[in-house]
Amino acid sequence: MEEFPVEAVRGRFPALSLTDQGRRRIYLDNPAGTQVPQAVADAVSHCMLSTNANLGGFFETTVAAQQVVDGAHAAMADFLNASSVEEIVIGANMTTLTYHMSRTLGRTMKPGDEIIVTRMDHEGNVSPWLQLAEDLGLVVRFLPFDERSWQVEEAALKALLSDKTRLVALNYASNLTGSINRVKALTSIARQAGALVYVDAVQFAPHGLIDVQALGCDFLICSAYKFFGPHMGILWGRRDVIDGLKPYKCRCSSNGLPERFELGTPQIELMAGLTAAIDYFADLGASAGEGGSRRQRIAKAFEVSIAYENALARQLIEGLSDIEGLIIRGITDPERLAERVPTVSFTVEGIAPETIVRQMNAENIFLWSGHNYAWEIVHQLGIPAEQGVVRIGIAQYNTAAEIEETLESVHRVIAMLRQQRS
């Protein structure tokens, strides 16, 4: 395995060199949004300054703008291994796209039909389906995760499926526990029962290679700003499924794919940044020795980054496990690191998560507290929703030295807060 070129990677991200009153920044808020390479910012700027026009005309800037849009769809097709660019829908964000698709799919459902949602998902893949069910008189069944494995188990899904199940909404990886679900196996079970499968891959996409064709699902959605790109969402839909759907749209707008799902004027400059983000992965793969297609270079990038991130996750988990009264809410077994992304959440007995996070933020260590929209998870675990957890999220530009400094801060802050209580 090649050594991960973390210093070269860090050199691509200008935000990593910023300081505040001379103090360094440690970015561990990555599950909520990563920093971006210089190339992403440059692509957005170039598009706005050089190819700024709406689509559909015959002059230079509109032709160039169309090339940007086409390039973004092609880049995401490579990133997800879609069979066609027509399967790639780009929009405002994951939640907006999911609401849009839920209403579109609702046109194919009738009262009494059933939808399964998990207690492991982000609210963006729960509320749209709950509200659709309320509107249409559908039945919602909740699929819990196993608190020993921290994953959704196949047997639990089988127990909920019926001949009335029309859709299963599940996530690839949790934004709170970090656990990765066995999506391919779960999808196979759901589709054998005749249900569509809608996968939220927002938290998985920065940390693992996605192959929609191998997964067998019908829809998969992710967010570019979680994998070093601009603020936008991307939905993949299986061609034979989406081609038969009639979305809510303007009467005179295109009926082609994917245009019929992309409402209004696209965020063309952000699409330029999206392509640059995908090319960042391809460049990383090339630097690791892969000279093949963009998809092959992306795959190589994940091969080297996963090994690197897992080592940092192991360091973080081992360091947190030394603290008495601290409970990691997720997989801690070092033999199961491949079954989680490097997002680690914890609670400390008797101390509110926000109190810890405020102290660490004051030390310029950026991380989050709260439920982080993992609303069903905190309720299943009995964690007060108004408190939630402390969440530390690693990205490939973080370093072992940053993790060590963060662990020292966690130890120090918890000891200080306990002393204040006593």
Structural class: alpha/beta
- Summarize the main sheet: 7 strands, mixed
Alpha-carbon distance between the two ends: 49 Å
The parts where pLDDT drops under 50 for at least 5 residues are none
How many individual helices? 14
Helix content: 40-55%
The CATH architecture of the largest domain: 3-Layer(aba) Sandwich
Q: Give the C-level CATH assignment of the largest domain.
A: Alpha Beta
Radius of gyration: 22 Å
Shape: globular
CATH topology of the largest domain, by name, is Aspartate Aminotransferase, domain 2
Describe, in plain words, how this protein is organized in 3D.
The protein has about 425 residues and is α/β, with parallel strands linked by helices. It has 2 domains: about 5-30 and about 295-420, Alpha-Beta Complex (Aspartate Aminotransferase, domain 1), CATH 3.90.1150; about 40-275, Type I PLP-dependent aspartate aminotransferase-like (Major domain) (Aspartate Aminotransferase, domain 2, 3-Layer(aba) Sandwich), CATH 3.40.640.10. It is built from 14 helices and 13 strands. The protein has a 7-stranded mixed β-sheet, sandwiched between helices. Helix 8 (about 210-215) links the parallel strand 6 (about 195-200) and strand 7. The longest helix has 27 residues, at about 295-320. It is globular and about 70 Å long. The chain starts with 5 loop residues before the first helix and ends with a helix. About 50% of the residues are buried. InterPro entries: Aminotrans_V_dom, Cys_dSase-rel, PyrdxlP-dep_Trfase, PyrdxlP-dep_Trfase_major, PyrdxlP-dep_Trfase_small. Pfam families: Aminotran_5.
